[in-house]
Amino acid sequence: MTDKRIILTTTGSKEEARKIANALVERKLAACVNIIPKVESIYRWEGNIETAEEWLLIVKTNANAFTRVRDAIKELHSYDLPECVSISVEEGSEEYLQWIADQVQ
Length: 105
What we know:
By secondary structure, the chain is α+β, with helices and mostly antiparallel strands. It has a single domain, classed as 2-Layer Sandwich (Alpha-Beta Plaits). Helices cover 32% and strands 39% of the residues. It has 3 helices and 4 strands. It has helices at 14-26, 66-76, 94-103, and strands at 4-11, 32-45, 48-62, 85-88. Strands 2-3-1-4 form a 4-stranded antiparallel sheet. Helix 1 runs antiparallel to helix 2. It is elongated.
């Protein structure tokens, strides 16, 4: 197991996805953020089933930065309840994991 994490969040627009991704990398909270456009999300919100077109952000970071990433997403996001889930990275190439470590402070 490593201390690296993948954090997932979604946004309602490409502009918002880019804003959040840029802020996370500029603040050295993430080494990289992938933006996957136009995913379809189906979810229950306030008792209703909703469908939305969203942009998925895949954030590469480490465990120590999770709280700061979560707080930045809350600060920058337009949703009342933005998604922010962390997935542990069990293994990876040593060089790539070291690169993440070098980028995140």
